[in-house]
Recover the amino acids of this structure.
């Protein structure tokens, strides 16, 4: 039986040490606990079975059982979380980002080759321009 390992999609948490990654399932569990939901309470709120939610949190989903964009949206709302972050952790590209990549693939190829220092400089520059406008 093929299984999808949700550990493949990770993102760094700002409150974790650099280099320590969090999976989609770990992020959902952390958010659920922070919001003081039980598995059953959150599952009911987003319209799934608690066993499915448990499989998400423990990265035990079968290959075809990955959470849908619609479910990720519901989870983000219920957990007061950043939907884009959850989509990325689940290995899905948010639509706004996907459209920009299609519009400017040349820019994203350059960005993909940059190191963190170069990316931080671009973000700082863009943030400065936004503040001045």
């Amino acid at each position: 039986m093929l299984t999808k390992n949700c550990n493949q999609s990770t993102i760094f948490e700002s409150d974790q040490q650099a280099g320590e990654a969090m999976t989609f399932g770990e992020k959902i569990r952390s958010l659920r606990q922070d919001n003081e939901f039980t598995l059953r309470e959150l599952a009911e709120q987003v319209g799934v079975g608690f066993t499915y939610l448990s499989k998400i949190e423990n990265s035990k989903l079968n290959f075809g059982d990955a959470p849908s964009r619609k479910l990720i949206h519901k989870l983000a709302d219920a957990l007061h979380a950043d939907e884009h972050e959850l989509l990325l952790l689940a290995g899905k590209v948010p639509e706004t980002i996907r459209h920009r990549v299609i519009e400017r693939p040349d820019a994203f190829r350059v960005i993909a080759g940059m190191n963190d220092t170069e990316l931080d400089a671009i973000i700082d520059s863009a943030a400065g321009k936004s503040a001045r406008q």
